[in-house]
Amino acid sequence: MMFPQTMSGRFTKGLTLIIAKEVSLWSESYDLNHIYILNDTMSKVYGYVRNRDLSLNMFKQPRDFNTKYRKFEVLEKIKEESDSIEVIGSTGTIYYITSDKGKLSCSCTGFKYHGICKHIKGLKNYE
Fold it and tell me: Dmax of the chain from CA atoms?
């Protein structure tokens, strides 16, 4: 299933995420380096794992990420093989609707708990 490119939202086929650990050496005695979830150009950050307590912190929307004067070790590259479309929810949160062998899924909590959501319903009504 191909998603319509004219729909509101950015069409993303083959989204690649990078999991990278910062290995910068800082002058401070405490360790500030975290593990980051980044886009393939490392210019946007989706979230990070805090080094001190290993807690995962995700952002509602990707944020600009500056790598100047910083060093990173790429731990993993995750390539999303299915077609996906990025949609903006009513609160401004970005969700991803993906199609895998014709079956739609969404990254929102509504889909996680109910198996259907307003984002998928909106896409089906659009088609």
Answer: 56
Condensed to tens digits (0 to 9), the pLDDT of residues 25-71 reads 877 755 678 999 888 888 989 889 988 788 888 888 888 999 998 99
Distance CA 63, CA 44 (A): 5
Q: Which two tokens stand for residue 113?
A: 């708990």
Burial of 87 (0-12, 13-18, 19+ CB in 10 A): buried
Q: For residue 104, give the 3-state DSSP assignment.
A: strand
Listed by start position, the domains of the chain span 16-79, 82-126
pLDDT at res. 2 = 37
Check residue 3 and give its pLDDT: 36
CA 50 to chain centre: 17
**95 contacts 119 by C-beta, under 8 angstroms:** yes
Of 90, 12, 4, 3, nearest to 44 (Cα)? 12
Both structure tokens of 25:
């050496």
Single pTM value for the model: 0.54
